[in-house]
Amino acid sequence: MELGVTVTGHNLTDGEIAAYEAGARIRLPPQYRAFLKRKNGFLPLQMMGPSVGVRTDLAEFFPLFTKEKRGNRMTVEYANDLIWFAMDSGGGRFGLAHTGRNFGKVYWFDLPHCCLDNPTSDDCMSVADTFDAFLESLVAIDV
Length: 143
What we know:
Blueprint: E1 5-7, H1 14-24, H2 30-38, E2 42-44, E3 48-50, E4 60-61, E5 77-79, E6 82-87, E7 93-97, E8 106-109, E9 125-128, H3 131-137, E10 138-140
Antiparallel strand pairs: 1-2, 3-10, 4-6, 5-6, 6-7, 7-8, 8-9
């Protein structure tokens, strides 16, 4: 199913992604790199969420970075072994492991309702084994 979205960032080039990785001193999983070249952040046009892993919605997919300042819109943040690339409507975050044994796996963490400031993938709920599997799991949610 093709879900409608409004793209919030410009599609990135290999050079822009490599520069980000060098500056942040992290390596992005290949499936996520490929995604950033097609869609660098988006807002869903209808309610959507993953059909497996966790029961929540997906309210915003953060751009890695944007060329222009977009008000208060968030961009990707990273801490420990996770890149926080999206959030649900309650403020929970979707993270992608960028290092270690969980490299490339997708997680969800109820960030605003927990006392941990910088959770690792071990503190999170597993959502998908790969970034592409996460994207494929996104379905429209009836309200």
